[in-house]
Amino acid sequence: MSYNSNNPIIVQSDKTLLVEVNNALYTEVRDKVASFAEIIKSPEYIHTYRISPLSLWNAASSGMSFEEIIQILEKYSKYNVPQNVIKDIEDNINKYGKIKIIREDEDLIITSNDSFIMREIISYKVMQKYFEEKIDDTKYKIDENMRGEIKLSLIKLGFPVEDLGGYIEGKKYDMSLRQLTLSGEHFFIRDYQKEATDIFYSDGSAKGGSGVIVLPCGAGKTVTAMVAMDRIKEETLILTTSITALRQWKQELIDKMNIDEDDIGEYSGEIKEIKPITISTYQILTHRKTRIDEFTHMNIFRKNKWGFIIYDEVHTLPAPIFRAAAGIQATRRLGLTATLVREDGKEEDVFSLIGPKKYDVPWKVLEKQGWIAEAQCTEIRVEMPEKLKMEYAVCDSRKKFRIASENYKKIDIIKALIKEHENDKILIIGQYIDQLKVISNELQVPIITGKTKNAERIQLFDEFKKGELNILIVSKVANFAIDLPDASTAIQVSGTFGSRQEEAQRLGRILRPKKGDNKAYFYSIVTANSREQEFAVKRQLFLTEQGYKYYIR
Fold first, then answer.
1. Domain 103-153 belongs in CATH node 3.30.70
2. The dihedral of CA 459, 461, 466, 469: what is its sign?
3. Torsional sign, CA 230, 231, 237, 238
4. End-to-end CA distance of the chain
5. Looking at the whole model, is its pTM more than 0.70?
6. Distance (Å, whole) CA 513 – CA 507
7. CA torsion sign, 256 to 262 to 263 to 268?
8. What are the pLDDT digits (tens) for 308-330?
9. Is pLDDT at 43 greater than 80 in this prediction?
């Protein structure tokens, strides 16, 4: 067995990788490993990654080969890479592309060059309803309307499908990117935005046109989508997380694209418009009168001959939208996100129904290039007050978490941080409304929650942007798609258990480039030696993978 003590990786036979943090090669290795493995633990000195079938299929779909992955492992491993791991990587990464959906004449065909694979998949009872006609041992005609269901069923059986079935032509709409924004600034596309769009669009071929672009918050995912709209030039449906995000999209489109404002429609709880470019929210699409009724507005997918559908913050996609996506696989689809992490484990659904990961860039790479702010993450631990200790000791786990999260001693820390950052724009973010109301009263600072009326919400955000307001308290409504470019400090006082995506999104609220030193500060206040502290470690996993280190106070 060869041995190189200077290398940072130990590859284990259970397909986990142990990576030494205090190693000169760690930063270089971290970004390479993250392209085909997922982080599962991040204590101080050794980080643990896992190689999974889905992580390998995403790597394969983005162009990474078996040889490249093995070369990385062999170059940076302390010991020989176990043979069973090499074989497992080869088997899984080569599965992507073994089964394809293609179009022959007017027919949709599922095919594989390996007749044994075809024989295996048609033998599954769950698959037999999808096959309409046998053409030969390697080809079967399938139902056009079952395209998404077939892909979803096959990935659950361990077979990722490469979909080359092509797309319908939507209604044409002539739009283009401006050279000067309406505000008079020169508008240019960053290299990584162009590269991401080139890979997604793939010259208009069936190899492109569906998939996910992963970029950090503040890195211009909206602009990247606009570049794709400019390429496709067909009527477009944009789905996003809230009415605030909807209106920010509309402002961005008007500012940066040659689109008549009257051609941009809002489909929300307040307005129901279908225009060539229509922006809606997941909330309105999943609205129904009772739990057994049909979704009132889901027919938006059929109200126009869309040529392109954009799913903003695709990692938050509700289950009913997945079901709708299954029926529109012949429409070009772009998912935008800062992290493919889903707390509900539906990453395979995103892969099958929206598309595989097409482009990803490490956050620290864009930070080094100055495209996002340099962020310092700090966890501040506070003691549990004596009067709460007995209640905490005797309650269940969920209640323990809430007591620790709402620890009133956090208010003193908030005041100290505000003093420390008195010249900054500060967001105070939390999970529990009662806690945020107490903080709001104590600091005499306005608060935005899910119940805040849209007009008031927009006014407060506007005052914050203009500098008329330097501190703003926000609930979970600020987790996604809120454009606050001048916010440079975030203080997180409570969160949703161990949600990695929430942690990433909250940091993202302060990552837009800053004038001057281009620095941002992210504080998480947690109760020491509590359930909250345990969950804080899980919350930090994704950002640790991206290269962020949490300093402990």
1. yes
2. positive
3. negative
4. 43
5. yes
6. 13
7. positive
8. 999 999 988 888 898 889 889 99
9. no
